Amino acid sequence: MKKLCPLCGEKEMEQRSGAFHYDAGDCLDMIFENSTWVYVPRPLVMESSSGLDEKIENFQYEKEGLLLPGQIKKIREKRGLTQKKIAERPQ
């Protein structure tokens, strides 16, 4: 079955594989090798797979100097804290 664009409902989405080029702005481009994504040519609407969303999100966290979600989890678990406990505001 053909997968249609979720916005226009008319153009057919195509699956692509290879090096995904991501323009992160500020004169910084990222290339994610061995990626798979689904797209609609013009206007670009993407629905990524194979962890591409996570790779892009992690890159954005690192660019902003923030801890990655996995790093936060590791620190929290090392200290024996639950998500609820670490979210509580100290009194």
Tell me what you see in this structure.
- With 91 residues, the chain is α+β, with helices and mostly antiparallel strands.
- The protein has one domain (14-87).
- It has helices at 52-63, 69-78, 83-87, and strands at residues 14-23, 29-40, 45-48.
- A three-stranded antiparallel β-sheet has the order 1-2-3, covered by helices on one side.
- A hairpin with a 4-residue loop joins strand 2 and strand 3 (45-48).
List the helices and strands and how they pair.
Blueprint: E1 14-23, E2 29-40, E3 45-48, H1 52-63, H2 69-78, H3 83-87
Antiparallel strand pairs: 1-2, 2-3
Q: How many distinct folded domains?
A: 1
- Residue-averaged pLDDT: 77
Radius of gyration: 18 Å
Anisotropy-based shape: elongated
Annotation field: number of helices:
3
Task: Give, in order, the helices and strands.
Answer: EEEHHH
C-alpha end-to-end distance: 56 Å
- Counting helices, strands and paired strands, the structural category is alpha+beta
Largest sheet: 3 strands, antiparallel
Strand content: 25-35%
Strand order, largest beta sheet: 1-2-3
Q: Which percent range fits the helix content?
A: 25-40%
Unreliably modeled segments: none
What's the total count of β strands? 3
